[in-house]
UniProtKB/TrEMBL annotation:
Protein name in the entry: Glyoxalase/Bleomycin resistance protein/Dioxygenase superfamily protein
Lineage: Bacteria, Bacillati, Actinomycetota, Actinomycetes, Mycobacteriales
PROSITE patterns: VOC
Keywords of the record: Dioxygenase, Oxidoreductase
Gene Ontology MF annotations: dioxygenase activity
Keyword Oxidoreductase: yes
Domain VOC stretches: 4-123
A Pfam family hit: Glyoxalase
InterPro entries tied to this protein: Glyas_Bleomycin-R_OHBP_Dase, Glyas_Fos-R_dOase_dom, VOC_core
The UniProt record lists the keyword Oxidoreductase: yes
Length: 136
């Protein structure tokens, strides 16, 4: 099997609001749209995003009333601090401030108008010594 594209499909209440958020702040372009549906993509390695209106019949019957919840859409980026500054300058609220986890992940999060959590990640240098003072 060869995977040519990866896509995540998210069920939301307001397709237009998420489309605006993703195209304005996350660098996505709308590829296809119809009533209750939008397909978004980028020209880099980011996952494509399909937005489906909650209740749309293309969803399995048991899933039609659900919406994107309990997931984090994460993007590994270069220069995390610059991305944070950019997103703040665009008026987007940072919903989790820039932080570094003990395992070397630096991150911050924003949330789109439909509650989709988007996390920006940069990994610390894995080759750096854990305790620089021990080497001095």
């Amino acid at each position: 099997m060869q995977v040519t594209t990866s896509t995540i499909s998210l069920t939301v209440d307001d397709v237009a609001a998420s489309t605006r958020f993703f195209t304005t702040h996350l660098g996505y372009a709308q590829r296809v749209a119809a009533d209750g549906f939008a397909s978004l993509g980028r020209d880099d390695a980011a996952v494509d995003v399909v937005l489906l209106q909650r209740g749309i019949e293309v969803l399995p019957e048991g899933f039609r009333d659900r919406h994107a919840d309990g997931l984090i859409l994460a993007f590994t980026v270069d220069d995390l601090a610059a991305q944070e500054a950019r997103i703040k300058s665009e008026g987007v609220e940072i919903t989790m401030a820039l932080r570094e986890e003990p395992w070397g992940e630096k991150l911050f999060q924003v949330t789109d108008p439909n509650g989709i959590v988007v996390q920006f990640v940069e990994w610390a240098d894995q080759d750096a010594p854990e305790d620089a003072e021990a080497l001095a």
